[in-house]
Structure prediction request, 83 residues.
Amino acid sequence: MTQTIEIIGRGRGPQLSTSRITLQDVVPYLQQDCTYAEIMGVMPVLTVAEIQVVQQYVRDPYDGVMELDRRICERNASALPQL
Prediction:
């Protein structure tokens, strides 16, 4: 029996229904045009099918997902202690 792969929300932002991997975990690799093998090398729990679901989800509302990623990166950068 094949498990359906969907993007769902569990309070951490959009994530795969099949794992705890969020879109924001995968988006930077998609932005860098990484291959499936490269992404799976970093996150070996992912399958090609899961990466494809993320790609399709990001492709549909691309601007919104990229804006969310920009805000998360900005928030994370501002949370770093100043040296």
Summary: Residues 67 and 73 are 10 Å apart (CA to CA).
